[in-house]
Backbone:
């Protein structure tokens, strides 16, 4: 009798343990699926300030009734022996108007170094409306020892940008691509 | 936290003796005892680390250590206190008391229970080892990232980060094993007639904690695994240069991290009403309301995580959502507070040490909860975030809510576990020293935080000097007072006035129907609950 009861309890326990292990597995899968989910949400909403990474089409309309101030900042990440800075701290554009700005990078090491620039726009809500037509950030850039290069960056802010956005800040972080 | 084995060895002869016994034991009380002893040891290890930090902060400027070492100390202190002191203490009580309270002969999975425990010393070793290796010139010490291990700092950090990652993996496995054991025990091993709605609140609190652990620990394990592959195997989960995003780490970490703070507290919220009931000689107030509040808090805790990085840059609707959802947790929490207060209202109160801790706990933990509400305010948090205000907030919740709560439980159950009464005078002295020096340590931190002193920085502006000096003095008194606690526990385990079965005049519940200490096999014949 007693052992029979024990046996059925053991069976019941084992079943519950398996179910709970399933829950653990589910949580692990959930954790990893958060990665694509996060990127998807960010792409749709522009939450993390990511801007387009391939060239965009030109816009034809210009909304001359509004001004948007675009500010530029730059960072060189540790491990990259470059100087890197925007040649203008800010520009004013009309929505739809195409604008060219320039950035300068100098390799201060004595070897060839490749870097990758990562843009980020704030406020993040503006990033879906910020369109880059030409950018050094679309691919990695290589500089020879001591070489200085000036990169143009061509962009426009689309005309459907929300009314309350008047200033945006575009920041570039340059990373070393070899690890 | 007793060495009750010695007592049992005289009385029982149906189990193996000696050191080997502790490695192989599957007895829930033995394992509970090991958890509690381990927790007590790690409480002192973590405490010594932070006294180093407070010594450095006693004066502005850098006196005692390099900033890197300072950073290693604060991170290891937090990881050890949370994972190696607070969680094992709660698990120790779970092992000891849940079978006794629900009338079960043992935990459901005794073998797994043993493994779950022995993983802990391994993980603790991994956390401490980098410090020791650094003494011999190997590596650069522990993780210098704070306990939150934020990328990109943790991607760039030294060997200590790898040790922390592996320690978290092992701690995670241990917690998940322990949780599964608790859930299976509660679902399948209750005495006949003990329905879920008759179950003691401690078991309820632990049940919810166990589910939260099963749901969130794998997310933390996943996050640190991604960190590991980012560090060594060329992935780019958190590396912006490779298309990843460091903010993603914050989401993953706090998806675990916020429930974690409730994981630490739910067991305490569970047994505290029992202590209040005992020493006010009134039945538990609002049992059902408390059960539903515990469940509500457990569920809400899963959906508020981003209040830990409200300043990281989120659109306004998201900010509003996380603000209001966070604030809504204070509703069920307030229900609990009112139940606790109503429980002692007009009761026939006596103030033995567990009750002193319980009352101090209600008041001080209340301050922790209220300051949390302030932090949840998006507009205010922009100023308070990453300041000492946050440090004060979470010590009013974690040191009081967690550690002082556990201390109330230790004094409450120690006579049951050891069979001896502890020294009441010393216990009371311990309470008053702890409560006063705790406030001396952390109250000033609210003010320096409001005035703009950032956390996790080894140096500070001159204007903060007085308050930091007070805080450091308080911390050393607080640390030294805990030696009384240690002494009292050891003395109580070794001898003292014999405890009765019921121990406390007003005690209610199945554990008090057994002898003190309880027999090696708790309920060989299950009681029936009417
Ligand atoms: C109504 C209750 C609570 C609210 C509204 C609340 C809210 C918050 C908020 C908004 C923060 C982030 C502050 C910042 O970093 O700027 C915070 C931090 C924190 N809270 Fe609470 N909290 C509450 C209760 C608790 C409880 C009960 C615990 C612990 C058991 C806790 C532990 C913590 C910890 C550990 C941190 C800091 C983590 C870190 O950055 O290292 N809180 N709380
Ligand atoms: Cu939180």
Residues:
């Amino acid at each position: 009798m007693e052992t029979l009861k024990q046996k059925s309890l053991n069976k019941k326990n084992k079943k519950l343990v398996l179910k709970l292990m399933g829950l653990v597995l589910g949580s692990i899968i959930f954790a990893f699926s958060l990665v694509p989910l996060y990127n998807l949400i960010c792409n749709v909403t522009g939450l993390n300030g990511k801007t387009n990474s391939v060239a965009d089409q030109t816009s034809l309309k210009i909304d001359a009734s509004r001004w948007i101030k675009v500010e530029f900042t730059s960072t060189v990440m540790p491990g990259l022996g470059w100087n890197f800075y925007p040649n203008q701290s800010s520009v004013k554009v009309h929505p739809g108007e195409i604008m060219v700005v320039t950035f300068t990078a100098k390799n201060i090491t004595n070897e060839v170094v490749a870097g990758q620039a990562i843009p980020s726009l704030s406020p993040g809500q503006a990033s879906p409306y910020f369109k880059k037509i030409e950018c050094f950030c679309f691919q990695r850039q290589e500089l020879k020892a001591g070489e200085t290069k000036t990169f143009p960056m061509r962009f426009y802010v689309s005309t459907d940008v929300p009314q309350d956005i008047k200033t945006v800040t575009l920041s570039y972080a340059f990373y070393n691509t070899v690890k | 936290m007793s060495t009750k084995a010695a007592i049992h060895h005289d009385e029982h002869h149906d189990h193996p003796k000696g050191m080997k016994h502790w490695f192989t034991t599957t007895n829930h009380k033995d394992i509970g005892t090991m958890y509690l002893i381990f927790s007590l040891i790690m409480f002192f290890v973590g405490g010594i680390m932070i006294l180093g930090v407070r010594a450095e902060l006693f004066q502005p400027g850098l006196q005692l250590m390099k900033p890197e070492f300072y950073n290693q100390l604060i991170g290891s202190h937090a990881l050890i206190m949370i994972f190696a002191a607070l969680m094992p203490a709660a698990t120790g009580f779970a092992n000891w008391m849940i079978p006794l309270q629900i009338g079960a002969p043992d935990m459901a999975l005794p073998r797994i229970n043993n493994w779950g425990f022995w993983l802990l010393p391994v993980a603790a070793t991994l956390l401490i080892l980098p410090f020791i290796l650094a003494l011999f010139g190997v590596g650069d010490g522990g993780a210098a990232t704070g306990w939150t291990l934020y990328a990109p700092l943790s991607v760039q950090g030294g060997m200590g980060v790898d040790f922390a990652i592996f320690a978290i993996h092992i701690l995670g496995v241990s917690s998940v094993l322990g949780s599964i054991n608790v859930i299976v025990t509660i679902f399948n091993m209750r005495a006949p007639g003990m329905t879920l709605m008759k179950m003691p609140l401690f078991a309820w609190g632990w049940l919810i904690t166990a589910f939260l652990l099963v749901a969130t620990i794998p997310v933390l394990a996943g996050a640190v695994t991604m960190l590991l592959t980012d560090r060594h195997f060329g992935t780019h989960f958190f590396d912006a240069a490779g298309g990843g995003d460091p903010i993603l780490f914050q989401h993953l970490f706090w998806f675990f991290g916020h429930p974690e703070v409730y994981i630490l507290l739910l067991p305490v919220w569970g047994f505290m009403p029992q202590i209040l009931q005992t020493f006010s000689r009134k039945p538990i107030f609002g049992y059902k309301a408390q059960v539903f509040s515990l469940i509500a808090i457990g569920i809400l805790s899963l959906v508020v995580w981003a209040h830990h990085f409200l300043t990281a840059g989120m659109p306004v609707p998201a900010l509003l959502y996380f603000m209001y959802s966070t604030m809504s947790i204070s509703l069920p929490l307030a229900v609990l507070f009112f139940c606790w207060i109503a429980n002692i209202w007009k009761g026939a109160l006596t103030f033995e040490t567990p009750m002193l801790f319980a009352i101090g706990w209600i008041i001080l933990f209340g301050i922790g909860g209220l300051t949390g509400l302030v932090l949840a305010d998006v507009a205010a948090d922009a100023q308070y975030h990453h300041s000492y205000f946050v440090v004060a907030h979470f010590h009013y919740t974690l040191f009081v809510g967690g550690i002082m709560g556990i201390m109330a439980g230790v004094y409450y159950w120690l006579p049951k576990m050891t069979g001896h009464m502890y020294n009441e005078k010393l216990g009371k002295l311990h309470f008053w020293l702890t409560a006063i020096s705790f406030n001396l340590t952390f109250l000033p931190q609210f003010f320096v935080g409001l005035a703009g002193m950032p956390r996790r920085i080894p140096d500070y502006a001159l204007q903060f000097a007085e308050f930091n000096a007070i805080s450091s003095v308080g911390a050393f008194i607080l640390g030294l007072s805990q030696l009384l606690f240690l002494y009292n526990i050891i003395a109580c385990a070794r001898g003292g006035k014999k405890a009765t079965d019921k121990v406390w005049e007003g005690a209610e519940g199945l554990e008090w129907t057994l002898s003190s200490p309880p027999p090696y096999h708790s309920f060989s014949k299950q009681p029936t609950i009417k």
Remarks:
- Chain A touches chain B at residues 9, 12-13, 16-17, 20-21, 23-25, 27-28, 30-32, 34-35, 38-39, 42, 45, 47-50, 77-78, 116, 118, 120, 122-125, 173, 175-177, 179 (CB under 8 Å).
- The pocket of copper (II) ion (ligand 2) is lined by residues B 258, 261, 307-308 (CB under 6 Å).
- The domain at 50-176 of chain A is CATH 2.60.370.10 (Ctag/Cox11 (Pfam 04442)).
